[in-house]
Structures are given as C-alpha cells and as structure tokens.
Task: structure prediction
Amino acid sequence: MPNGRRGGSGSRKHGPSMLEGFNTTFARAARYVKAPPDLLENIRVCHHLYAFQFPVRIRGKVQLFQGFRAQHSQHRLPTKGGIRFAPQLDADEVAALAAIMTLKCAIVDVPFGGAKGGIALDPRAYEAEELERITRRYTAELVRKNFIGPGVDVPAPDLGTGEREMAWIADTYNMLHPTGIDNMACVTGKPVTLGGIRGRREATGRGVLYVLQECFRHPELLQSTGLSGDLEGKRLVVQGLGNVGSHFARFAQQAGARIVGIGESDGSLYAPEGLNVDNVLAWRAHTGSIRGFPDATTFDSPGACLELDCDILVPAAVENQLTAANAPRIKAPLIVEAANSPTTPEADLILRRRGKVIIPDVFANAGGVTVSYFEWVKNLSHMRFGRMAKRVGIQTQRRLIAGIEALTGGTFPAALREEVLHGIDELELVNSGLEETMSQGLQQILATMERHGIEDMRTAAFVCGLQKVVVAYEQLGIWP
Ligand code: GLU
Result:
C-alpha cells in the first residue's frame, strides 16, 4: 500500500537528529570565528521553512502528502539544495540539511545560500506515473509560495530523486511561467537533453575521488593513518551503491584502488583480493541484490561492511551509520563521508579519540552542488560550455604541433596528436572545474586547521565555511 500518511513530522526516527549534530559541530566551530554572537546565532538557525500538505489522487483514493522546503540562509541568492523522497522525512531533517548546504556552498565557493526539501514518501511504493503527479503537484506548491525560481531557490536531486524528477520539476515550473527565458535554471540535475550538464550525474562520486587524491598530496594529513603514496592498491570499502557510491567505487577502481568491501541495504560483500565494481553492479541489476555475488563472502548485515579491515571507509548511503555502537570496532584509519551525516556526534567523538581521520560530508560530497552551479550558469548563459572556444583551441594546438615539428624536424607522436587535437568539450571543462574546486577546498580546510590549531577536519570545515558566510553578511551590509 502506498505510503500516503501525513508525512514524517510526527513519527519517531532512529538515531540522533541531524539538527543536533549540526548544532554540536556549529558550537564547536563558532569558538574560532570572530563575529558578534548574535550574527553567529542568526547564521545557525534556518531562516525560512515551508511545510505543507497537498492531496493527490492515487489509485482512485485521495492521499495527503507532506512536503517541505527549507531555505537556511539567503545571504547569497538563489538558495540551493536537493529534494529528497524519504519515508521518515521531517522538518528538522530538512532544516539541518539546508544548514549543511549553506556551509557546503561556502567551503567550495559556490555562490548560493543553503536549502533542502522533499516529500515524506517511499518512492518505491509508487508507480512512475504516480510519482510524476506527486512531484508536479509539489512543484506547483513551491511556485505558489515563491520557493522555487532561477534567482530564488534552485532544487536538485538527493536521496530518492534523480534526473527524471528534475525534468518534471523543470517542466512544471516552465508551464507556470510561459514567458520566462531563464526557466531552465530553476532546477539542476536535469537530463542533458533538457538543459542538464554533462558530468552532473557522476559529480558527487567523482568529487569524492578528487578529494581522496588531494589527501594523498598532503602527507601531514595522513600521518596518523599510516597511509602514504597514492590510491594505487589501497583497500577501500564503500557503503551504498546509489548514485554517489556506485560512481565513486567505479572511479576509485579505475584510479587503482582495490574495492574489498561493498555494503547495501540488504547485506555486505567482502573480497580481500578486490571486487570488480562493474560486475557487482551487473549482478545487482540481474538478481535485484548484491547478495551471493560470486568470489565474495556475503554477510547478512548491511552494517558489516563498516567494520571490515581496510584502509579507507567511504559511507555513501544514508545518515547515522557510524554510531557509538560500532565506532569502537571501525578498523579503517581514514573515513570519507560521501553521504550526508553518516556519523553520529557520539561516534565522531569516539573515532576522533581513536585517531581516525574523517573527511566530513559538508566538504567531501560538495561535488554535486559544485557541478549544479556549473549547470545553473550554463542555463543562464543559454550555451554549452566550450562551444565558442573549442575550434580556436584545436587550431592553436595544430599550429603548436606544426611549430614543434618544424623546429625539431621530427614527427609529433600520432597518439598524442589525436589527444591534443581532440579539443576541450563540456565534460572536460566540468571535470576540470570540479577537480580544481575540490582540491582548493581541501587546501583551505587544511590551512584553517593549521591557522587555528584545530585537529579535526569537521570543525575546520565548519570554521572555513562559517568565516565566509560571516564576511558575506558583513560586507553585504545585511548585518548592522
Ligand atoms: N543533494 C546534493 C547535496 O546534498 C546536491 C545539491 C545540489 O546540487 O544543489 O549536496
């Protein structure tokens, strides 16, 4: 039976609330930020929260759905953040995730305020056509209250949503604004054929890879982990094969890492010699589960993967996975939070005391919003990146090759010539911008640790983001 109850606001959730987690880290970070306490308090709280009910007729019966959209801070506009479809979604979770978005955008210099939204529903309980009507009605409600628009608030995919839902949102917005020339910039993460950008789908996973690669360029950061060199041969465990985890695992494997463990909601796989990620994905597509994948040990418990012996643990599923219960048993010396809030505050403390290095979600998974920013700019410019410059680039390279050949009397290597004369297109530009952003982000966080003598990256990342938001409020004259 479809889940049409009145949303998750009254329901109990398991584990500590994300808002408590956010507030705990915020308080720790605020001590390092020079700003009036009331400005900091103003930055901590969520400024706009729209919670609403809307009816949709499903299989002959009217059902009420609970929708949310939180705009945490409008110091930069538009506000930005995903839309999640999750059964237990409630106002606190949406507000916390919106707050995280504010700091996330600031850390990676994406000029947006933070937002988040969603509907309390289990998307697996509905047919595509039903989800379309629910999504369109949700979007219409956002339009009615001016909670969506290219210069106001720009949603994106999150848990339980993807390109298909973003296409419905874009089309609904477009229908309601018949003359709006910038309509396509009202949402990001759209299909490429509908104003999306190449590389957005993989962006969060790819961003996590770039973060890891940058980590290995800073031996001082990894000193306590005993890890050195680069990703080549490192033993990785990835929890969650959703959009983030599956792309990350594939990229990490291509970069030479050994994926020794994979966890999904119905079990975990372990293979010390390494799993072939593409084969695991094919196995899951074929059987409906990762369980029973040949050449690996299957554990019944989805959480078993977290405690496996490995070098790097990448939780890429949902919140509250690393808890006070399993934190004492986590073996990985390096943890990269690809999911939002995978570590509870208690677990965070235990892991820090045990000397683990944690790359926090607020930075590690910022690749998604970074490429969303590129998509938004593309939509507003109404032109694909690289379209004007590609031929000029190729011509310049051709002349350069001719010059080199004339000077040396030799012939430029054929394979290299092909590569050089290929020209730079949208995907290469997107990935270049993403890599630069994630590398810079990590360097800024490390500089913050150094400057303030902060030992953990979560606090430092918050300080780094917070400082920029404070400057924005002060410079924009919003704060007296
Ligand atoms: N939902 C993603 C996040 O949590 C992406 C947000 C966006 O692209 O706006 O960062």
Notes: The domain at 45-195 is CATH 3.40.50.10860 (Rossmann fold).
